[in-house]
Design goal:
The N and C termini lie far apart (97 Å). The chain has one domain (2-91). 85% of the residues lie in helices and 0% in strands. It has helices at 2-14, 23-27, 32-91. The longest helix has 60 residues, at 32-91.
Length: 92
């Protein structure tokens, strides 16, 4: 049964007539329909790349903010430790 279905599928694909395709898809490689399809493809690629670029920019912004917060926390801790050390030194 499986062999018969596989053979039928292969024969259907091998014997498919080119006349089943529309002239836009199969025949004329130039024309207003093809130009519109190309323009639509470029538009979709442009929108996709713009959205991906926005995601990349957002994650780079988050990374920059995290680094800035980490450095600020380190500077605050260092300042606090220096003040503690100065007070301890003055009490001696």
């Amino acid at each position: 049964m499986k062999r018969a279905l596989a053979l039928a599928a292969i024969l259907a694909l091998a014997l498919a007539a080119p006349a089943l395709a529309c002239p836009t898809c199969y025949g004329d490689a130039e024309g207003p329909m093809i130009d519109a399809a190309r323009l639509g493809m470029w538009l979709m690629l442009g929108v996709t790349f713009a959205i991906q670029g926005g995601f990349i920019a957002f994650f780079l912004y988050l990374r920059r903010q995290a680094r800035r917060a980490q450095h600020q926390a380190l500077d605050d801790e260092w300042s606090r430790l220096q003040r503690t050390h100065d007070r301890a030194w003055r009490n001696v």
